[in-house]
Design goal:
Shape: globular
Order of helices and strands: EEEEEEHE
Largest sheet: 7 strands, antiparallel
Oligomer: single chain
Strand content: over 45%
Distance between the termini: 27 Å
Helix content: 10-25%
Number of helices: 1
């Protein structure tokens, strides 16, 4: 998966069960890539080790900062897209709600119950 976040350290802020996937929302992230992440939601299928999908809140590049300070990005094997830019993606609750919704859409888990574990 290209554009996968190169996470060195991060603290789990929330965990969810979405169907047969576990989702972990990370904060206080240090990474080895050029992006400055505020939050990352990583989804891992049961029995697997590696995430199949990431939703990130990351500092927007200078040319988009007039729209907001943070990009909302989806990263999977088939796509890497910035879906929105705005100030709200720097806050945990709005990011968490949107990230879980996007994960359900992208992975076809709309009919699966979301259970907050942490």
């Amino acid at each position: 998966m290209r554009d996968r976040p190169q996470i060195k350290t991060a603290l789990p802020k929330r965990r969810y069960q979405i169907g047969d996937h576990t989702a972990t929302l990370l904060g206080e992230i240090e990474s080895d890539d050029e992006r400055h992440y505020r939050f990352i939601l990583a989804l891992v299928p049961m029995g697997e080790q590696e995430p199949v999908l990431y939703v990130t809140s990351e500092q927007a590049p200078a040319e988009r900062r007039a729209q907001g300070a943070y990009d909302l990005r989806v990263i999977s094997a088939s796509l890497t897209d910035v879906l929105d830019t705005g100030e709200r993606w720097q806050h945990l609750d709005p990011f968490a709600e949107q990230a879980v919704d996007l994960a359900q859409q992208v992975l076809g888990l709309r009919n699966q119950q979301v259970v907050k574990l942490m």
